[in-house]
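Sanity check record (used in CI):
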Amino acid sequence: MLEKTGEVNPEKVIEEFEAMTKDAGRVQKETLTKILEENGDAEYLLKHGLGGRTDPESFKSCVPLVTHKDLEPYIQRIADGDTSQVLTGKPITSISLSSGTAQGKPKFVPFNDELMDSTMQIYRTSFAYRNRDFPLGNGKALQIVYSSKQFLTKGGLAAGTATTNVFRHPRFKKEMKAIMSQCCSPDEVIFGPDFHQSLYCHLLCGLIYGEEVQFVASTFAHSIVHAFETFVQYWEELCADIREGALSSRITDPSIRSAMSKILHPDPVKADLIYNKCLNLSNWYGLIPALFPNAKYISGIMTGSMLPYLKKLRHYAGELPIMSADYGSSEGWIGANVNPKLPPELATFAVLPDIGYFEFIPLNESIEDKEQDDVSDFLRIEPKPVGLTEVKVGEEYEIIVTNFAGLYRYRLGDVVKVMGFHNSTPELQFVCRRNLLLTVNIDKNTEKDLQLSVEAAQRLLANEKLELVDFTSHADLASEPGHYVIFWEINGEASEEVLNECCNCLDRSFVDAGYVSARKVKAIGPLELRVVRRGTFQKILDHYVSLGAAVSQFKTPRCVGATNNQVLQILCSNVDRKYFSTAFA
Ligand code: AMP
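Expected output for GH3 family:
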C-alpha cells in the first residue's frame, strides 16, 4: 500500500477495503487457511490434532475456545526462551504486556511482525476514511504518546506494552509519516524515562509547532484529557520556556534536554500570543483549537471505558471535531472506524476480514441471566459461536479471535454489538468487558452498568457545576453483608446534601434484578460512596506506570479487586468523606 513516494494513496486504500469487505465470508476462509498453513507445524495446533487441515469445520471441531489463562504456559515458555514452534511457525519476536488492570497485573501476549502489519493496515484504513471527510494539510501531529520501559524476558525477548512494541518498531516512523501522522515531538520525548517530563515536552513541542499541528491524538481519550489538564496547570511555565528559549528545570533527563534544545529557541512573540490566547479563554473552553488553529480534529479511542472523559474532552475541543480511533487490543486488531463523522457515542468499527479469523458467541440475555451462565459454567457447555458474516444486527456477542500472532479461538473478553454491516463485514460497537465487575452474591453488574449508574449520579453533580474527575469501584466482601463501594474524585467542593443524593442515586441506578432484590432483603448492604482527595487517580496512574504500564495505554480500572492491595491502599488512604445509601432503607 505504500506508494513509491512514501505516501499512502487514500483512495486506493478505500477501494481495496471496499472490495475486500464485499466478500468478507470468502476472505475469512482464506485468512483462516493462511493462518493455519503458516502455523500448521506449531506444537499447539499439532497437539489439537489439526493434522494440517485448514478448513473452518475441522478447525472448530479440533481447536477449543480458550482464555488467556489456557495459553499462559505456552506464552511463558516462549518468554523463557523456548525457540521451538510453540504457537507459531515463525518465532515470536517480542512480548506485549496487555493492560489487565482489573487484577493489577499485566498479561503477557505474543507480538510479531504480522501484528505490526495489521496495526499499520488498521491505521491506514481509518486514516483513508478520515482523510476523505477531514483532509489534512501538510504539517505534523501532536501525538501524546509514551513508550513504556522495555525489559528483557528470561529468554531475552523484548517486552513492553503493545504500543511500545509498535512505536519502537523500525517501520513505525516511516509508515506514520506516510499517513501524514508525523509526531511533532522528538523520539527522546516519546521514549523518555519519566512520563511527566515527556508530557511537558509533548505540550511544549505542540506549542512550538502550533501552526503546523494538523491534528491532536493519543491512543486513549484519557491521555488527551490528562495532557490538557496538565497544560492548564503549567501553561505559564510553558510560555516562559518559549519566551526565553530555555527548558524548565523540571526536565532533568539529559537526552530529553538535549533533543529539546535543538527545537526550542527564544520566541517572545509566540509566547505572548499563546499567553494572551489562554487569558482570553473562558474556563479553558476551546483550548485545543485556540492553541492549534489549523488542527482538523482530535483522535483517540473514545468508546467503552473512555466515554466518561468525553465531556471534558469536548470542553477542551470546543468546535473541533472529535473522532474515535480503531478497535483492537494488545492481542490483535479487530476493526477500523470507517465512519469518522459519527460522534464517539455512536462510533462503530468495521471488522477487517483479512487480519484474523473472527467468531462471535451470541450473548442474548446471557449476560444478565446468571443462572444460565452458572449452569453452562458448571456443565462446561461450550457456547456455539457464529461466523463473521452470520452475526445479526442488534445482537450482542463475545468476540473470539484467531490471528497471525499465535492466538487460536481466543476469548478476548469483550462484548460487542452489531450495529449494521459495511458491505458484508459487520460494524461493531464496543459494549464492555464481559467479565463481571461488581458482584456480591446473586447480583451481576458490568462495566457498562457501573458507567450508567455513575452517569446518572454525575448529573446531580453537574447541576452544582461540579465535575467528576474519575471513578472506580470495589465489591467489599469483608463487611457483612457485602456491599458496593464507589470511589469518586471530584473537581470542587460538593455539599453533604448533594453527595448523599449522589450516593442514593448510584444505589438506585443499578437496576440489575439480582442487585435490587438482594438490596431489598438486605443481602447486600447499602452502597457506599467514598470521595477521595484530588490527585488520587493521578497516584493510581503513577502506580501503574511504575509497574511498567504506558500512560498512552492506560485505562483506569473500573473495579479494583480485593487482591489488588496496592491500588486499594492508595484509594483507601485518600478517602476524604464517606456516605452510605439510604435508598433501600
Ligand atoms: P489492552 O489489553 O491494554 O491492549 O486493551 C485492550 C482492550 O481495550 C480491549 O480488549 C477493549 O476492552 C479495550 N478497547 C480497545 N479498543 C477499544 C475501543 N475502540 N473502544 C472501546 N474499548 C476498546
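Residues 98-99, 162, 301, 303-304, 327-330, 412, 414, 430, 433, 553 surround adenosine monophosphate (CB under 6 Å). If this sentence no longer matches the regenerated C-alpha cells, the check is flagged for review.
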